[in-house]
Design brief:
Helix content is about 40%, strand content about 20%. With about 500 residues, the chain is of the alpha/beta class. About 55% of the residues are buried. The structure holds zinc ion. The site of zinc ion (ZN) has 7 residues, from loops.
Amino acid sequence: MANERATIVRGGRLINPGRNRAEPVDILILGDSIAEVGQPGLTAPADAIVIDARDRLMHPGLINAHMHGHGNLAKGMGDRWTLELLLAAGPWISGGRTLEDKYLTTYVGAIEMLLKGCTACYDLTVEFPLPSVEGLEACGRAYADAGMRAVLAPMVAEFSFYEAIPGLLDAMPPALQKEVGRLRLAPGDATLNAMRESMQAWKFDRASVRPAVAPTIPHHCSDDFMRKCAALAHEFDVPLHSHVLESKAQAIVGLKRYGKTPVAHLQDLGLLGPDFTVGHGVWLDHDDMQRLGDHGSSVAHNPGSNMRLGNGLADVRGMLERKVNVGIGTDGANCSDNLNMYESMRLASMVSKTQGPDTDRWLTTGEVLDAATEGSARALGFGGKLGRIAPGYKADIVFLDLHNVNWLPFNNAVNQLVHTEDGAAVHSVMVGGRMVVEKRHVAGVDMAALARQVEQARARLEEASVPNKQLFEKVERVVNSFCPGLAKMPYHVDRFGAGHHVHEHAAYSH
Ligand SMILES: [Zn+2]
């Protein structure tokens, strides 16, 4: 241990789901990991750095199980968009990015997450028409510079949104069909090669920033491409993530395309396993949940995005009952407009409570906190390393200011963390034993300079994106009549067990 820096955190209150009031403890940190958690007065090396954490509540860094770094420069650009309109708007709001823009959009999100108590994320980023070594390197560098952990998964596919939805192109006049033709993606093999090259050239410490593979949406990919994505992930021992059953239109398209649910199809392709995460899973039925649970797979639950895009309310209790690992995410700032994990926890709790009068089926605040920490950690492939303040875990710790109005009075730590806290009480944030946020300020960041840089990028992108914006305005009406048409078709989802057979999704039937 001679070369390992020692830090002793003294007197902070440690959140504990078993106790209403968190008790003061001392935490000894060696290098980047927690060595010991003990009573106040814990022995520490004489030269240890001392952190006075009195009047602070300590909780494990929150872990965002699903977000999109490219979305941060697009925050606030849309309203009243379904998922399908958001996908159609993609080339406008996220297109034309330079390498510097790719860094900047990722960096802004990392700063936001750190300031809001989040220390690791699963970033499903995108480049058009295929990922690049330099692009992924720029995104990875943004997290490394900010001092945050990330799993960086390029979203890849073979078919554009217009090619992926059966009948959508046919619903367009020929001139428009031709125009959307320019949104065609690179051939699958070129995309797979680019990911392989990127993983071979990976220059970041994988304990902090690691790669993953994200075939974006199953029906945007051929079966062969999906299998090759999984083989690539297995070859490099990295996780897999895909948007599955996020919208009802996807559920209908999945049935049309596969003759079974997309999850049943993914199982047949051999993709399900402990390294596989379903993004959203709003339209999973109980058999799908069972399949995911049996394979030890995860769902990244994004309640804010699910409501904002009108996709519905996911049945997290049903997932937990079937041993699905559940993590919590914010989704991208292009469709939930902030990256606030406190808000996501609050919404996860509330969404569970809107779905029926049986309080046993509601999530407890403790279950929500578990999902946003250890559950998300498992989805990221960091199980047993992140998500707890305990010996052997990385020292990723958030310190909340108990003098903040959110904690006046301090009645119940876990209830207030999930239902009251909104990020305003975040005082400091430690990642790997190093303080990256102190006194509500990210170390080494000049926010005024960052604001100038972001504004320059915004203004340039606004000008450069005019053709793609005009194309969106042309396709908007077609997409917004065709896709809700799909979503009006009946879809049978057995969601509430015996005696509660429903033929429509809760969010659409009430
Ligand atoms: Zn997403």
